[in-house]
Every structure is written in C-alpha cells, then in structure tokens.
Amino acid sequence: MQLLDGKKTSAELKEELRQEVEQRKAQGKKIPHLAAILVGDDGASRTYVNAKVKACEAVGFESTLIRKEADISEEELLKLVHDLNMDPEIDGFIVQLPLPKHIDEDKVTLAVAPEKDVDGFHPENLGRLVLGLPTFVSATPNGIMELLARYNIETSGKDCVVIGRSNIVGTPMSILLSRNSNPGNCTVTLTHSRTKNLAEITRRADIVVAAIGKPEFVKADMIKEGAVVVDVGIHRIDDPSKKSGFSLLGDCDFEAISKKASYITPVPGGVGPMTIASLMANTMKAVKMRE
Ligand code: GUN
Q1: pLDDT at 250
Q2: Ligand 1 centroid vs 122 CA: distance in angstroms?
C-alpha cells in the first residue's frame, strides 16, 4: 500500500504558487487576493477558514477574513457579497458553508459573481464543468484530481465508485472522473444513501471515492484487493486516550483498508490539504482571468 500523501503534494502545489507570486511581484503584476466570509461561530468552519487564510500567507497571497455574527440578516449578507463582487482589489472570495438556518444558502451562492466564485459553487461554474468548459472546479474534487494526476494513477477504463452525491463533492467528482481527460475516462457509478447492495458495487471498483459524511462507513470487506481509495470524510470523534481529547476519522476504516488497497489517502493529511491548495490555485486562476 502506498499513501496518497496530500500534505506533501499540497506543499509542492503551494510552493509552485509561491514562486508564481514572486514572479508576478517582480513583473509588477497584481498579487492574488482571496476574501472569506465566515458567519457564526461553528468550530469546524473556523478551523477551515483559518487554514485557508494561513495558506494565503504561505503562498504570498493577500487575504481578508470577514467575520459576522450568526444573527446577520440574509439581506446584510447579500449586500456584503455584492460589495465583494464589486471590489476591484478582491480577485476571488468564498462564503464558508454551512450558513445559519435563517439564511438561504442557494440565494447566497447565486449572488457570488461567477468570475470570483473560486469555490466553483455557482450554477454557471457547475454548468461549465458539466459541459467541459473552462471553469472553477470546486476545491475538493479539483484537489482529488490533482492528487491522482501527481501520483500517476491510471484511471482510463477503470471502474470508479463515488459514494455520496453532494453538490460540492460527489456529483462534480463523478462528472470529472467520467470526462474524456486524464485523469478521467472512468466508468463511474454514483452511489448514495438509497443505493441497494452498496458493498457489492464497491467491491467491483478499481477506484473508490468515499464522500458520504459518516465516520468509518466504508469497511475493508467493501474494497477490492489493490483498489485505489480516496477518503473525503473528516470527523472529530471524542477520544479520551488522546491528549487533544479527540481523534480525526475519515469515511473509511483506514487501518483495515490500508492492508488491501494499492493507494489510500490518510485522514488527516490526504484530501483536506489538497482542497486548500486547490482553492489557492483557483484564486491564482481568478486573478489571471481578470487580467
Ligand atoms: N464547507 C465545507 N467545505 C466547504 C468549501 O469547500 N467551501 C465553503 N465555502 N464552505 C465549505
């Protein structure tokens, strides 16, 4: 078994971006500027947004973190999105999800200008992805494709099973892997909570992408010997034996599956860091598009 090391690969990606920023500086070009809106005080969202801001610092981007109380009105949030759309200094921005219940996430996603939508959540960008047109591919699927590419994983003609059909991961992942591209050209099965005989389906897969959002849902007996396993989940589980008081688990039973898989992403240190590096790459793309 070989690890698909997202920590190492994302560091390489970020180093390439850092060098590109240096070149841009030397040429007097604009330094990419990413803004993030964080609403409320959700612990996981705070951790993710802080990691994104830290990554901006590491690659030499400008960053702006806008924090708002959980009781911000939808109207006020939409106004803030509009202001960022119009701000010539900001090249791209994200609104960290989930949002408080009283705010319509779809409305907010639609309000982001597609050319600044570095998360790739806007229907225009998702539509462009489906059609194979240049777009911002949302960060997690983009990061997984980059990881497969950099490890030279053969995907052409392979049977791939994606578990989970979210707009952010499962659905775009299934489209990207089935496209006529490299990585790509897989025969993809998109499975979800209503899929019957899931284990039978996953056992046939050469590549499994687990994005179901349930800790250690995928067991070793669901995986074929030699399969490539990509684990998108990350769950903080109470663990008194740990100094921190918790462990991080993925959607896959890593210990058992790693004895069967040819390649597997660890949690943490697999897909997560690749997601952040991809967001940085999308922001670099945004600044270039605006030029
Ligand atoms: N919440 C969980 N993942 C993401 C992401 O990639 N982007 C945003 N904006 N919110 C998220």
Answers
A1: 98
A2: 13
Locate tokens 């056992």: which residue?
203
Q: Say whether 119 is catalytic.
A: yes
Q: Is 139 in the pocket of ligand 1 (CB under 6 A)?
A: yes
d(C-alpha 117, C-alpha 92), whole Å: 6
In this prediction, residues 146-170 reach a mean pLDDT of 98
Ligand 1 atom closest to Cα of residue 275: 6
Q: What are phi and psi of 178, to 5 degrees?
A: -95, -10
CA of 112 to the centre of ligand 1 (A): 14
Q: Which of 224, 228, 194 is nearest to 210 (CA)?
A: 228
Ligand 1 center–CA 211 separation, angstroms: 14
Determine whether 96 is an active site residue: yes
Structure tokens at 85: 């759309």
Which residue in this structure is represented by tokens 């911002």? Answer: 136
Judged by DSSP in three states, 133 sits in: coil
| CA–CA gap between residue 152 and residue 244 (Å, rounded) | 36
d(CA 261, CA 269): 17
186-215: pLDDT as tens digits: 999 999 999 999 999 999 999 999 999 999
Q: Put the strands of the sheet holding 159-163 in their side by side order.
A: 2-3, 263-264, 228-231, 207-210, 159-163, 187-191
Domains of the chain: 28-113 (3.40.50.10860), 139-272 (3.40.50.720)
